[in-house]
Amino acid sequence: MLAALCRAGDLATARRLFDGMRAGEQGGEAGAFPNVVAYTTMIRACCASRLADEALSLFKMMLADGVRPNRITYNTMVQGFCQAGRMEPVKEVFGMDSFKRDTCTFNTLMAAHCREGRIQDAKKVFDQMMELRVRRDSASYSIVTRALCENGEFGRAEELVDSLLEKEVLKKRGGCVPLIASYNPVFKYFCENGKAKKARLLFGQLLDIRSKVDFLAFNTTGINLFAECRKHSAKP
Q1: What is the structure's pLDDT at 211?
Q2: pLDDT digits (tens, 9 = 90+) for 115-173
Q3: Domain at 54, CATH number
Q4: 6 and 86 both lie in a single domain
Q5: Can you tell me the distance from the alpha carbon of 26 to that of 34, in angstroms, rounded to the nearest whole number?
């Protein structure tokens, strides 16, 4: 019931139901009481409605009630505050000993830094993943690579692509699958600088993992890519 109300966007009714559950528990009445799923559902709904302060209040209430957050709760908080541009609460959540940060957590934080133009901060988070032995998936690479290209740091972007290809990250299962458009600035850079072979290698690996999804879009990108490479290779 609570989840259905939240999905319908009826946050006011959901909150009354939630508060009623808490009141029943505190009054010693038998029945449902807010567990980690209920708290996380409410927190996610608040984040989706851009009610960051309300989400933080629920999170603190959760801790006070002795309900232990799980990884989904923490990642929901991080994502919600990142989307709201509230980085201080994100740092607070990150610093909690009980928070086992995963690939999704770091990708969310990197994407937030990139949206705000904090490219170096995003790169630091990317490097921190290796230090903490958190797996970097294809999305981790695409987020930072695109940001570096948009910032004109093509040399550093190429180093990341070299690492991605060498470690065959795109061939590993699990994690997020990046959109091929994420690498368009890299393709353009490679083609304009006589590195068509590397462009084809990257495109081929991307095509392998997404060939069953939107194949027409991939064909269009591939045609444009190789046309661009031929154009630049034909220059005297």
Answers
A1: 39
A2: 888 999 999 999 999 899 998 888 888 889 888 888 888 888 888 888 877 776 666 65
A3: 1.25.40.10
A4: yes
A5: 11
What's the confidence (pLDDT) of residue 221?
A: 52
Domain boundary among 73, 100, 127: 100
Q: How many beta carbons lie within 10 A of that of residue 204, not counting itself?
A: 12
Q: How far apart are the first and last CA of the chain?
A: 69
Domain with 28, as residue range(s), is 1-100
Task: Take residue 165 and report the two structure tokens written for it.
Answer: 């290809």
Mean pLDDT of 93-111: 89
- Give residue-wise pLDDT tens across range 176-186: 555 566 677 77
> How far, in Å, are 62, 149, 186 from residue 159 at the CA level?
44, 12, 11
45 and 141 assigned to the same domain: no
Torsion of CA 64, 70, 76, 81, to 10 degrees: 50
CA distance 63 to 69: 8
To 5 degrees, how large is the angle CA 226–CA 187–CA 120? 180
CA distances (Å), origin 114, targets 54, 124, 155: 26, 12, 18
Coarse DSSP helix, strand, coil percentages of the chain, rounded to the nearest 5 percent = 70, 0, 30
